[in-house]
Design goal:
- This protein is of the alpha/beta class and 89 residues long.
- It is built from 3 helices and 4 strands.
- A 4-stranded parallel β-sheet has the order 2-1-3-4, with helices on both faces.
- α2 crosses α3.
């Protein structure tokens, strides 16, 4: 049996999380293991599930996406990260 690629979605915007989850659910071999709305909840979910990939927004309330990456590095936690961020005026 092939191992699925596990993904954690971290974005404070529900519409963005929903869109990413919708797209990923249509791809065979990918499992969305959780969603987080900020870096604090993302870190807890990361520690619980150890995802293969984190889809990470940069701009969030509280600590931003870069600070999340720094938290992972500080704790010597490794994963693949893809930045998925947008800005509109």
């Amino acid at each position: 049996m092939n191992k699925k690629l596990t993904v954690l979605i971290v974005d404070d915007e529900k519409d963005s999380r929903d869109l990413l989850k919708y797209v990923l659910q249509s791809v065979e071999g990918i499992e969305v293991i959780g969603e987080a709305v900020n870096t604090e909840s993302a870190l807890l979910k990361f520690l619980d599930h150890k995802p293969d990939l984190v889809l990470l927004d940069l701009v969030m309330p509280g600590k931003n996406g870069i600070e999340f990456v720094e938290l992972l590095k500080k704790q010597k936690l490794e994963t693949n990260i893809v930045i998925v961020s947008a800005y509109s005026n």
